Write the structure tokens for this entry.
Amino acid sequence: MDKARLALIGAGVIGKRHLEAIASVAHVELTGIVDPFQGARQIAEQHGVPIFADTGDMLDHCQPDGVIVATPTEHHLVPTLESLEFGAHVLVEKPIMATVEEARKTAAKADAVGRHVLVGHHRRHYALVNQAHNIVRQGQLGQLVGVVGHWNLRKHADYYLPDWRKKWQAGPILTNLIHDMDLLRYIAGDIVSINAETSNAVMGFEKEDAAALVLKFKNGALGTFLLSDQSHSPWGWEQATGENMSVPRTGRNAIRFMGTEGSLEFPNLKIWNSEGTPDWRAPLESNDMAETLEDAYINQINHFSDVIKGITAPCISAHDATDTLRATLAVYDAAESGQRVML
Ligand SMILES: NC(=O)c1ccc[n+]([C@@H]2O[C@H](COP(=O)([O-])OP(=O)(O)OC[C@H]3O[C@@H](n4cnc5c(N)ncnc54)[C@H](O)[C@@H]3O)[C@@H](O)[C@H]2O)c1
């Protein structure tokens, strides 16, 4: 295969980001767009590809090798299953599906038809995320003891004008925490239990303003995480990295990983350790590692092309993303029941 033939379903905010990435990658080509709404016609014209209202028509006409599903989450399932059934590989946006049942159905279909599903947890395509994974997993911090994480920023008031954004499904747990939950799982390992509290004391909407989590990892490490979309703070992935152009970069850490022999600030990748026996008498020093923030969406399209060509397996598969979704949804159950939720 020379160029992987791609199609996009859902040309909204993130769909357009995928279109930009496709245009920057030489060995893929866009063949069509599915989006039943008015504005999408012009986007298809700009990209010189046909527009379809129906996924089946697009599959018949375009014969894509890979399909990107970037519809609203509650509309991920049908186009994903149709594309897999047709024989295409799928890159589906995060969260993989709206429910764990739908996610499991997706993974089972992909296995049954022998096609891959790559899930759009785009942060996995940054070199610094993979460096952190290697530092922790290869034992540079010794045995992992604990993790303390933050995602705390204050979204602008207009963001919450549409009524659907006031609902629980649009709250920061499912919109934002899911990215950090995926990072925690990828870097620190599988999560076995979650306790949580949520609060809506600032805005009073159905969606939460804040959540506090206690996590236990399979390797025995413990973690805490504080999330809020109503706190004006420098601590969170977006502020740390400057990935989102609307959020000024602070360069501060958002998550700290602590082990028996040293600690890691993330995502600024500052490692703290010492010479000799690593106990409280040893002066700690930090080594700053080179920070590079590439375009994760371009990396993701390159990776999807490799998956389609059989060069590699998805770095985050449907099974893996189902576990991230399950852990994220467990936060609601833990907060509502006041009980520890076992995963
Ligand atoms: N990776 C990330 O950081 C990230 C960021 C934003 C959004 N997302 C995810 O991407 C998905 C889309 O979010 P968005 O913000 O781009 O939404 P959006 O509302 O901006 O865009 C969705 C698009 O899908 C189209 N659409 C709706 N139903 C459709 C259907 N049945 N078939 C084809 N097209 C349909 C709409 O017309 C719209 O153009 C969500 O799952 C969201 O969670 C991921």
In short: The chain has two domains: 4-123+297-312, 127-293+326-342. The longest helix spans residues 318-337. The two ends are 41 Å apart (CA to CA). Residues 4-123+297-312 form a domain with the Rossmann fold fold (CATH 3.40.50.720).
